[in-house]
Design goal:
By secondary structure, the protein is an alpha+beta fold. Helix content is about 40%, strand content about 15%. The strands form 2 sheets. The chain has a 5-stranded mixed β-sheet. Strands 3, 4, 7, 8 and 9 form a 5-stranded antiparallel β-sheet that branches.
């Protein structure tokens, strides 16, 4: 004799923790995290665009450090929140569709939207976490795909809130133990109260932040046991891409190295000694990376504007920065005119009073205020202003 297994129904889940009263409260903070991550992600995406109708600002110099740190911190905090949120509502996925044709259409559309929201949210958090770890087990462009899916997630979230707003409003206004919107079968105590579940959720979110935020917040580095690149490296500045991985060690240390500065028919060629002989400037500027880590450094080198003046380059012009690195998405970068003209933008030769290490971009690297780290080109070989 065999007994056929029947699919579960919402009545199969009897815990009182599967309740809109819990889901709404977790959902509020999950929505805040998703909203902040979305807005700061837009800022990061725009900062990396070649075309910027409104120039990305150079001040404050720590602006990108703040927004990208918030992006990764809120994304990290969202992980335990999303897990708890999904656990509280997953019995709803087993509801049978109504028999009314009109209601079926509405129900199907709502479930499609919920599926988009859940899958997009999981994709963003998983891919974002792997990006922080610099592990890319995929062939697609992380930046473009992450950006596109973020719009899907935020659009589905807005629709979801609009559809569920009456229940959300009632659940938040009512007592945490109110069962008005609960499934009638959800009456079993689970060994932990609703308040206990929420407290555990807030603690888990807080621990997720504390154990990773040290990559951005220096005061938390001793607590951030899961933080990546949170202070190691020459001069206290972490390194994403080494000279060996960029295959530039030989050319960067060669005695024949020279820097070309070009504007139209005007061009100068400078050795590192020539650069050291020019007026040196020192600026304290952060490096802030898309993975969320950041660190302050004291950089010394030649003001970029001084180099551009050598070839008569006009102000407010974009500048192409070329690297000795031959391959990679960010081997070159376009420096917008407001960055090129900013007195704090340097072609750095030293970090914290010592010559640049080879992994930090020796013989020289770009350092500009409020600019994504991936665009702070290392191993600079050419500086060109179109005629």
């Amino acid at each position: 004799m065999t007994t056929a297994l029947k699919p579960p129904t919402p009545e199969s889940f009897t815990s009182r923790l599967h309740s809109p009263a819990v889901a709404a409260r977790v959902g509020v903070w999950l929505g805040v995290c998703f909203g902040l991550a979305f807005l700061t992600g837009l800022i990061s995406h725009y900062a990396q665009n070649v075309s910027q109708p409104i120039p990305f600002p150079t001040s404050p110099s720590w602006g990108y450090r703040l927004t990208q740190g918030l992006h990764v911190i809120t994304g990290t905090a969202a992980i335990p929140l999303l897990l708890v949120k999904l656990w509280t509502v997953y019995p709803k996925f087993f509801e049978r569709p109504p028999r009314n044709v009109r209601r079926v259409v509405v129900e199907v559309l709502e479930r499609i939207n919920t599926g988009l929201l859940v899958s997009a949210g999981i994709f963003l958090l998983v891919s974002g976490t792997l990006n922080v770890a610099q592990w890319y087990p995929w062939e697609f462009s992380y930046r473009r795909t992450h950006y596109a899916v973020a719009w899907v997630a935020i659009g589905a979230l807005v629709v979801h809130i609009a559809v569920k707003l009456p229940i959300i409003r009632d659940a938040l206004r009512g007592h945490l133990d109110d069962s008005t919107h609960d499934n009638p079968s959800a009456t079993r105590d689970s060994g932990v109260s609703r308040r206990g579940l929420l407290t555990t959720t807030w603690v888990a979110g807080g621990l997720a932040v504390l154990t990773t935020a040290g990559s951005t917040v220096p005061a938390l580095r001793d607590l951030s046991i899961f933080g990546v690149r949170s202070g190691g490296g020459p001069g206290g500045i972490p390194i994403n891409k080494s000279a060996a991985s960029a295959d530039v060690t030989a050319t960067a240390t060669s005695s024949s190295y020279s820097l070309s500065v070009v504007h139209g028919d005007n061009a100068v060629t400078l050795t590192r000694d020539d650069l050291l002989a020019m007026t040196q400037r020192t600026e304290t500027l952060p490096i802030a990376c898309v993975e969320g880590w950041s660190a302050n450094g004291t950089w010394t080198g030649v003001r970029l504007r001084d180099l551009l003046d050598l070839v008569g380059a006009p102000r407010d012009r974009d500048v192409a920065i070329g690297s000795l690195q031959q391959e990679g998405a960010f081997r070159d970068s376009l420096l917008q005119g407001n960055f090129a003209d900013d007195d704090r933008t340097l072609l750095a030769l030293q970090l914290d009073g010592e010559p640049l290490s080879i992994d930090h971009g020796y013989p020289c690297r770009l350092i500009a205020p409020n600019r994504p780290g991936v665009l702070q080109t290392k191993w600079v070989s050419t500086i060109e202003v179109p005629a």
